[in-house]
DNA sequence: GGAACATGCATCGGT
DNA sequence: CCGATGCATGTTCCC
């Protein structure tokens, strides 16, 4: 039974804080054993801050890697989650300080590892895996099957391929070492962190030596020369591990694959090419899983990456050649883009990992035998944040149950990323979204590998068979394309600076994340800069839904939108408070309160679909006791979640809501929002008061009965515009009564 | 027609 | 008697 432990009968309504007096996010982080500093950054850093962090930060700010796709899944979200990517600064520090063999729980970065290291890495991965699950288990068994819960890992599977600082080393004998360095290097940084390019190549870390050891078979590969440094503990360890692997009957397939590839490409692929490959550990894990899992999955992934490197190199060489012809006044290692912004998108390439090599036609064939997917062959200067390897969402039930990612969910991160995408990439986001949407209804069932548990967060890896997009990307290697990209980048940089002042407009392009969009939306903020967590709601009053193109889209009754991912339904009121639910909370459902909900009955009818999707499954009609922490007051209400048989169906109710409603002064037309804390799995509720300063009050009966307007009771604004005739959007300050 | 939801209303139990 | 509980029914909309 999902979340059964959350609903202990011994809880009492109105118990203050339930032993968690200060249910602050930081406090919760500490409970989780998660480094607080990271979380603080994650939770509190604004984009402005990120912009000031460092070049690397700027890089990511400009072209944030897309959130990882939850696979097996969200999160969201977008999530989701959502465990979104951690703050850049955090990643920088951790990446710099972490060594490849570090086993710190805080270190979860991973670079593709050679076969020799794979097992060691597997241990790390498992460790991480257990780490997450243990956390989940610790808090809520339900989380185990909650896609979003795992999002912490899945979402962070941001894949980025690095174009590091140019190395003078050519592809001499050391090339192989460099290769090893790359592929034998498993950085264990925070799984959600971005890598720090400067931290990658530390010859004294003995990391690539590990791979050397793995590959140290001169008789077989005389062309490979290694530094035979002795006494390196890492080497010894690696060797031992390697031997152990062999003894254990585990083949070093990865190493052999890599060696084969090296032999085939040693003359055409440089160390630089290989150095550019860097993947997050979680990305690798998820990608490998998507590719079949286990060693085979890792091997497939390695092949994919090598193929990418190869293709990438060829393209670069073509560019170099054209450069040497006088077309480009800069040498290969001084890519103008890099010079211009050494840490921006030109430094990143995201390898989209096929979600499922069985389901994705692009990956049904061995990467060895097929032309590399165009997006894999992208010019290093081609930023493809949209293709960040959202390879998997272990919780892939789909909804970041967003969700919403929300959001915060896995989906949350994903959506969050949208905001900072260059305009040219919104189409990707949009595409991505639509794909996810489609999958919500169709692809998931047929593609279990994509989604996992319940597919509540169906956003997936963008299908690789988008001809248009592929064509667009495939042309990126051309000089013209590069020029365009540069111009686009400039525009985006400029655009980004003004982003906070134009969030609404910006947000309405493509499928930007309403969560993040609203986070910085000055309009949405309470007047006077009030940071009170009270509920403010932004009311669209457009009649007939004619004003779809406003920030309140998330509130406008659009069944199609609602049918999408849950994170799209993150109440604007929440987003507009500066409060960032996407960091810890996953939006579950919301309900516009009807008269019967706020009356003396003390029960609120919950939308059936959402209830069944996001709340614990009910075996008995008596339901379960469920503690709902009031987000605004931290007060915990012990409610009962149950259902009534209704015809052949069920009607889901939240009971014991009378005091909550009264305390919050909720009235008909107001709404409640229910979240789950992605960290500890507890449920949180917020009452949002909706008040229209002018205009007709909601026609209680009529508006309430309009399915159109209520759209499964998930569209708060809709309930208030049922009779509205104004086409203007008004901002209404409301506040949750505490 | 059926699903989902709002709510009417019958019933029950406590005071 | 009154509030709580739970079922039934009406309304609306989607398929």
UniProtKB/TrEMBL annotation:
SMART domains the record matches: B3 (SM01019)
Bias type Low complexity, positions: 717-727
InterPro entries associated with the record: B3_DNA-bd, DNA-bd_pseudobarrel_sf, LEC2-like
One GO biological process term: response to auxin
Pfam families: B3
Coiled-coil intervals: none
GO molecular function terms noted in the UniProt entry: DNA binding; DNA-binding transcription factor activity
Biased composition (Basic and acidic residues): 1-15
Region (Disordered): 1-26, 499-536, 691-738
TF-B3 domain location: 589-691
Subcellular location: Nucleus
Gene3D superfamilies: DNA-binding pseudobarrel domain (2.40.330.10)
Keywords: DNA-binding, Nucleus, Transcription, Transcription regulation
Protein name: TF-B3 domain-containing protein
